[in-house]
Amino acid sequence: MLAAFDDAIADGVDIISISVGGAFPRDYFNDPIAIGSFHSMMNGNLTSNSAGNSGPNIRSISNFSPWAFSVAASTIVRKFLTKLVLGNNGTYEYFVVGRHWAAGSITPDDGKKGASLAFPIPTFSLDASDASKILQCMMSASKPTAKIEKTITVEEESAPIVASFSSRGPNPYSYDLLSPYITASGVQILAAWTEGSTLTRVAGDKRVAKYNIISGTSMSCPHAAGAAAYVKSLHPQLSPAAIKSALMTTATPMNPKTNTDLELSFGAGHLNPVKAAYPGLVYDAGEADYIKFMCGEGYRAEHLKLITGDNTTCTTNGTVWDLNVPSFTLSLDWLGKPVTWTYTRTVTNVGSAVSTYKAKLSAMASLTVEVEPTVLTFKSLGEKNFTLTATAGGDKRLSGSLVWDDGVFQVRTPIVAYAF
Asked: What is the distance between the terminal CA atoms of the chain, rounded to a whole angstrom?
């Protein structure tokens, strides 16, 4: 895998998209994707990677390094719906997977709603509660029958919603860093498919297709990579961190009622490439900032060498709260005691040279937020510093945001507090 990163960097790519993740989280110095994406960042390239498909469990995310771009998966406005009609005229509607030859099957979805799996026979996947009802119907009929009707396309009015399979944060090694960073379209995606094997690789299944319907963060990750490439094409001078910031601070906020894990599931929100093209302000960071962060996290020289590939040592220790990322994360005492942290951030003006940004704060009850200063005045393109102080306690998950608004650009930064 590291050789693939090296080859991509040597080829002069601008963005790397890697839809690969481990079954469990690894520390930065022991994770080839974290190491490869660090080298990519050193060479000016942002790496977009999949958050993982082990949701909805908390801390199930497998890619989370702060120098890369971890992407969750959410639904889109189109979905495929199929009716299952039982012999007793009971009707169920779900996404159907698999088709052609032989009889069909009905199987529970194991709670992984939205997942797209290929089967060698027509297969109807439904949740456990409906599966039990169908089982009762089968037990009560002497000759139970069922019919899987033709799949239709319908509009998904509730979209976007983070998929249940999409891995959740927080960052399992750096608790006060937001992960994942954003969510993008990743459910029932029409995607290219290899013709080098059959659809299922099951004996007897001879179907080969150029395209397939796929769900997963492996689908959302390329969407984010494409958006990053779009921003890079418009602003080739932006660093990987600045491009990541542009995508995060312009993301569309998600509905907390339908995404109850809040930022731990969707990060800054849903990808919005159109707005990301002109972000106004960005949070920038580079190799030295990430090394200071790792030194502050307690990483020794031998650990740093595994990541950087050189003889870098710790000269200055940074803190996780001062790493210049476009988010504010507060891990709470599990006993519910109030916790307060102050974060230092620097924003770089890439919008209007002469502009005045005013701070707009919003937060759930039990989350108190203050920012200083409340106004950022630019007379030219450049940097401004500010601090944000957050106090939270009691509730399991709390959400808020800071928006810097100059009347043209709205630069939104998520605030999240959570207890283990």
From this structure: 33
Neighbours of 147 (CB within 10 A): 11
SS3 211: strand
Which residues make Cβ contacts (< 8 Å) with residue 146, sequence separation at least 6? 84, 85, 86, 87, 104, 106, 134
Rounded mean pLDDT of the chain? 90
Q: Which amino acid is at 293?
A: F
User: What pairing do the DSSP bridges indicate for beta strands 355-363 and 375-378?
Assistant: antiparallel
User: What is the phi/psi pair of residue 65, to 5°?
Assistant: -60, 140
How far, in Å, CA of 403 to CA of 249, rounded?
9
Query: pLDDT by residue (tens digit) across 308-361?
Result: 999 999 988 999 999 999 999 999 877 668 899 999 999 999 999 999 999 999
- CA–CA dist 372, 344 (Å, integer): 10
**3-state DSSP call for residue 128?**
helix
Indicate the helix (H) or strand (E) that contains 41. helix 32-42
Q: What is the largest CA-CA distance in the chain?
A: 81
The predicted-structure confidence for 126-152, as pLDDT tens digits, reads as follows 777 777 777 787 788 778 777 888 888
397-405 and 355-363 beta bridge pairing: antiparallel
